[in-house]
UniProtKB/TrEMBL annotation, chain A:
Organism encoding this protein: Psychrobacillus psychrotolerans
Alphabetical UniProt keywords: Cell membrane, Membrane, Transmembrane, Transmembrane helix
InterPro entries according to UniProt: ABC3_permease_C (IPR003838), MacB_PCD (IPR025857), Macrolide_Exporter_MacB (IPR050250)
Family: Belongs to the ABC-4 integral membrane protein family.
Positions of transmembrane segments: 21-45, 315-340, 361-387, 399-426
GO molecular function: transmembrane transporter activity
GO cellular component: plasma membrane
Compartment list: Cell membrane
Domain ABC3 transporter permease C-terminal stretches: 322-433
Membrane-topology annotation of the record: Multi-pass membrane protein
Location of the MacB-like periplasmic core domain: 24-278
Protein name: Putative ABC transport system permease protein
TrEMBL record, chain B:
PANTHER family in the cross-refs: ABC TRANSPORTER ABCH.1, IMPORT ATP-BINDING PROTEIN
SUPFAM superfamilies cross-referenced by the UniProt entry: P-loop containing nucleoside triphosphate hydrolases
UniProt domain ABC transporter: residue ranges: 2-219
Transmembrane helix in keyword set: no
Name of this chain's protein: Putative ABC transport system ATP-binding protein
Family classification: Belongs to the ABC transporter superfamily.
InterPro entries reported for this sequence: AAA+_ATPase, ABC_transporter-like_ATP-bd, ABC_transporter-like_CS, ABC_transpr_LolD-like, MacB-like_ATP-bd, P-loop_NTPase
Any Pfam family: ABC_tran
């Protein structure tokens, strides 16, 4: 009964001081918002990376430039090979690997940045030279047209498959930055999210007289290429194909100055021979190189390394969240201690009129607790809204908010409220009524 | 109603010990109207705090309505204060963010009576005090006299046996003082025991008995 009275008085106390309560609550709101959004970012990044790495397939082996060191327990320390190093891998290396027993396919990739021209449009893009297996191993689906064939590859055919952004930019569907100013690879910019929303609301779709480049000719480095396909949008973190122009590797070698491979994806004929192929590929490459300036990494090693990166991310997340919650909790406690001080006379009056120490203590405890719960709920709601807006408009990676994170945030706000509510409540309860009544 | 025997109380401030009450003896009968006068610092407020169980005595005995207050636990003293004592303070001591109705209801909130009866009791008292039309107003919208009438209504709401008033007209003008004193007279006529702490002779003269506190003892 006393608890119920204290709870009612706490609700009334908060309502009576609602303007101050709102400002006091801001700390918890911001803290919880940060927790929700940061958690969603961390999980979103992890999920996206895992999905991309996982999509390699267990029988696939990645060959990349630079030496990945071994850790003390024999694991590959992929973090040591993440730095940018000049590649010494060549197409000859890829051909050597093709001859390794139990190798099903080898998909080498050459990459450079160049301008692509179509009529009066000039767009900077990533030119990729590869094999007919590219769309399969890279999970790059076609929006229209077709991919080049093995025959076209061997015949050094001047055909290209363009990424979705490049396609739209060349047709004037996207804003095209000034080619003279473009110095980075990420030159092709899509419309800002607010413009796309506005267009959707107003129903203003791009009026495209020309809706497709398939069959049209484009220019790269003063050479003419026929567009035979367009890749479907694939805006994923780190390895998007949207800004790529893909051509046969033999064509790229003869018409561009590209010589060194950025990576090579090797497929073993079955899961059982992956370890054997891994070693054989390494030996085949080592025979072509004077030093070990390349790395051969299996999918499980990639996932292991990624797990290490995401673990670091999670530890950082826990630290940032704990700091945010500590700050918001301390803020609430300070506000409540100030509130107790400001309401000293009120506490004296209540005690003089028959309030017990327990009732006063519980009233202030419930006030702090409710403040944290309401603030936490508002913060979670705002965080959820932010995630919805992000996922609806930003394609680079999706924010993921699992239910456990919401529950954790809510329980944490209750725990903080309980923890920081104790001190102000005890302070209020311990006041002597005769002294409190005289408080000026 | 009240029986104090050789009550002593001191306060400490650092190493200084200050004897405020030095053996007070007082008997107040049921329904009596008593005024305790004294100069500033004579121990009047300490006396009121002890009588109202807001503070505890160091030595001596205090019986209220036959119950030994000096032997009671804190919880029992709180219950006794809520059920048997009504306070009227000089500065009204109303809670500013509560309405007139809620201020008067407060002692019942901490009591054990049923809510239905509580509301009826508060409204009846506000009607009696001529404050029914102000029941939803906050104290800062009331005049000094109205505030003190709210405080008196709050003191009476639990139907206590003892009304303790500390300088009840100290913050009021002459005309309002007279109205409030008449209200005390009326409450006294209805059977309440009243102890008024004051330094105002005019207020003390309304009581049936006047006691003076000098150097910590009643004379």
């Amino acid at each position: 009964m006393k608890l119920l009275t204290a709870f009612k008085l706490a609700c009334f106390g908060l309502w009576s001081n609602r303007y101050r309560v709102v400002s006091a609550m801001m700390g918890v709101v911001i803290g919880m918002f940060a927790v929700i959004v940061l958690t969603a970012i961390a999980i979103g990044v992890k999920d996206t990376l895992m999905k991309q790495m996982g999509s390699l397939g267990a029988e696939q082996i990645l060959v990349m430039p630079g030496r990945v060191l071994d850790t003390a327990n024999g694991q590959k320390d992929l973090l040591s090979g993440l730095t940018s190093v000049p590649s010494t891998l060549t197409y000859e290396d890829a051909q050597a690997v093709e001859n390794v027993p139990n190798v099903k396919t080898v998909t080498p990739q050459l990459e450079t940045v160049n301008f692509v021209e179509y009529e009066d449009k000039n767009v900077q893009s990533a030119i990729v030279g590869t094999t007919d297996q590219y769309s399969r191993v890279q999970h790059a689906k076609l929006a229209e047209g077709r991919f080049f064939t093995k025959e076209e590859q061997q015949a050094e055919a001047k055909v290209v498959v363009v990424g979705n952004n490049i396609h739209d930019s060349l047709l004037g569907k996207n804003e095209v930055p000034d080619a003279e100013e473009g110095s980075s690879t990420n030159v092709v910019e899509s419309k800002p999210w607010w413009k796309r929303i506005l267009n959707k609301i107003l129903g203003e779709e791009v009026s495209a007289e020309e809706t497709s480049l398939v069959g049209k000719k484009i220019m790269i480095n003063e050479e003419t290429y026929e567009v035979i396909g367009v890749l479907a949008p694939n805006a994923t973190l780190g390895s998007s194909t949207d800004n790529n122009v893909v051509m046969p590797i033999e064509t790229a070698l003869t018409t561009t100055d590209m010589k060194n491979l950025t990576k090579m994806i090797v497929e073993a004929s079955s899961l059982d021979v992956v370890d054997e192929v891994d070693g054989a590929v390494f030996n085949a490459l080592a025979a072509n190189h004077s030093e070990i300036d390349f790395s051969v990494v299996k999918q499980d090693q990639m996932l292991g390394a990624l797990g290490k990166v995401t673990s670091i991310l999670q530890v950082m997340l826990v630290g940032i969240n704990a700091t945010a919650l500590l700050i918001s909790g301390t803020g609430i406690m300070n506000v409540m201690v100030m509130s107790v001080r400001e309401r000293t006379r009120e506490i004296g009056i209540r005690k003089a009129l028959g309030a017990t120490t327990f009732e006063i203590m519980m009233q202030f405890f419930f006030e702090t607790l409710l403040l944290c719960i309401i603030g936490g709920a508002v913060g979670i709601g705002l965080g959820y809204a932010f995630i919805e807006v992000w996922n609806g408009n930003i394609e680079i990676f999706a924010l993921v908010l699992p239910m456990w994170a919401v529950k954790l945030a809510l329980y944490t706000s209750i725990a903080i409220g309980s923890l920081v509510g104790i001190y102000p409540a005890l302070k209020a309860a311990s006041m002597k009524p005769s002294k409190a009544l005289r408080f000026e | 109603m009240i029986d104090l025997k050789d009550v002593r109380k001191h306060y400490r401030s650092g190493n200084l010990k200050s004897e405020v009450l030095r053996g007070v003896n007082l008997q107040v009968k049921q329904g009596e109207y008593v005024a305790i006068m004294g100069k500033s610092g004579s121990g009047k407020s300490t006396m009121l705090n002890l009588l109202g169980t807001l503070d505890v005595l160091d030595k001596g005995e205090y019986k209220l309505a036959g119950k030994s207050v000096h032997k009671m636990s804190r919880g029992k003293r709180v219950r006794l204060r809520n059920e048997e004592i009504g306070f009227v303070f000089q500065h009204f001591q109303l809670i500013p963010n509560l309405s007139v109705f809620q201020n008067v209801l407060l002692p019942l909130t901490y009591g054990r009576k049923r809510l239905g009866k509580k509301k009826a009791r508060v409204l009846a008292l506000l009607d009696e005090m001529g404050l029914l039309d102000k029941k939803n107003q906050k104290p800062d919208r009331l005049s000094g006299g109205e505030k003190q009438r709210v405080a008196i209504a709050r003191a009476l709401v639990n139907e206590p046996g003892l009304i303790l008033a500390d300088e009840p007209t100290g913050s009021l003008d002459e005309e309002t003082t007279e109205n409030i004193l008449s209200l005390f007279d009326r409450v006294h006529e209805q059977g309440a025991t009243i102890v008024v702490i004051t330094h105002d002779q005019e207020v003390a003269d309304r009581a049936g008995r006047i006691l003076r506190l000098q150097n910590g003892v009643l004379v």
